[in-house]
Amino acid sequence: MSPEARLLILIPAELTDHMKVSVVIPTYNERANITPLVEKLETVFKKHRINGTILVVDDSSPDGTADVVRSLQKKHRNVRLHLRKQREGLGAAYKDALPRCTGDVIVHMDADLSHNPDELPRFLNKIDEGYDFVIGSRYIAGGVRGDSMIRRVLPAIGNALYAHLLKFPVRDTTSGYRAMKRSALRDVDISELPDNFSFLSAMLFEFVRKGFRIGEVPISFKKRVAGKPKYSFKDLLGNVKLLFWLLVRRISGS
To answer: Pairing mode, if any, of strands 79-83 and 51-58?
Structure first.
């Protein structure tokens, strides 16, 4: 049995029978990826008896991603579409979408199939253990990062700095695969967080600051299946700027 298989723990039936899960997927030009991702999630829901809803948040993709989601809605009643007027950034999409979720647990993940839906039970098990916020980590035992070396080095350095300078209790602060209790999210003000990719790290900072219990589970991160990567050098600079801003906040106690 592979290490990945050993790490995949089945969810207890008594948990999945009562827990409602909302999965949020932000999209922009993901027409080629959204159908296989939704179908994979539906398979996981059925296999593990998860009462799951999928909310696709689309920034009016010119490639017709929203039309594909509308077709999926005819097949799956638990698929929702929230269409935004324009592309304003990953953080803006999440700030718009997360308050719309009704699940006891909210999961968000990338649309490009870099995140494996089969690993979703790990997050729910961790939540069941008493954690409020769970990060899918590429940098702990069992975690795998399958993209190019160039795209690995700088994020790894950035994550190490976040962990060391800000005392974050996790190794992967920029991971987009994560889960949280909706009850905990209600106590965190995300309205003033960045609209760009650095929203992910800023949101984690707020959960840390509030004293919530935060954990990690290993994930196997893969190269996107189709389309172009959304993360850019501009996003990297944004995370560096955020790091220093949060460091100042931590030192000043503000």
So the answer is: parallel
